[in-house]
Design a protein that fits this description.
Blueprint (H helix, E strand, L loop, with lengths): L1 H6 L2 H10 L14 H11 L13 H14 L13 H14 L1 H16 L8 E10 L9 E3 L4 E10 L5 E8 L8 H12 L5 E4 L6 H8 L4 E4 L15 H11 L13 H23 L2
Parallel strand pairs: 1-5, 5-6
Antiparallel strand pairs: 1-3, 2-3, 3-4
Helix pairs in contact: 4-5, 6-10, 7-8
Length: about 290
Amino acid sequence: MEIWRKYFFLDPLRGICEKLGMQDRKNYPSDVSDEEWAFCVPYLTLMKADAPQRKYPLRELFNGLRWFVRAGCPWRMMPNDLPPWSAVQQQTQRWLRAGCFEMIAEDLRTLLRVLAERTDTPSAMIVDSRPLQSTPESGGRAGYDGAKKRKGSKVHIAVDTLGHLLALKVTAANQQDREQVGELAQAVQQVTGQHVALAYVDQGYTGSTAAAAAQEHGIKLEVVKLNQAKKGFVLLPKRWVVERSFAWAARFRRLARDYERLAQTLAGYHWLAFALLLLKSFFAKSA
């Protein structure tokens, strides 16, 4: 009960907001719920709650970040009833550097697998990539994808068979998918304890190079091929799961294009988006 008094009662939060000149506001749809905040606060608290350098409530800073990544606006256009954009941005960078969202996503992934009556660590994964159009901010590291006829970045992800994020890498769009297999496989085996043995991929990962890179980490690549006689849209076995994961991430408008100067910032926002999706799913299923 002490934790709830310290972090979650609204009266102390209102008092702090009034002291800082922030108005008591109506909730945004993106605001964190009490249950979600109770889960997240141990991961996001990087210093004591009463630290003298903390000027704004941590929960309001997190609400500002959630609003920002969902709405996709420039930092300086954040609403006035949230903490200043500079405070939210600075705290976001601290969270990204500390790997807070990766830790939240990893623990929630385990909990959701247990709720789904699966083993806590996956034995198979699905790998794919999607291109993101560049912007003036990210144009310096952009590449041209000849297949998609788009200049920008590529987000390469590995997900488990439930669609939950395991590993992620951002490259220029002209980088080949098969060249990223080794690094993704290594990252997946690190987070799963060498438990993954099979990876489903599309025909962009064919060839001995990708297969050998995966085999170095104890993973066998299985290429899911299109039916040669297909007509119209065909739902590919296993492969549709990663496409659904990309569709989930597309709900966050900050991820619609590559607006970031640094690739690691774009990767961090993807981890944040999946952490928020898993958070919502966990409390919906455990209710």
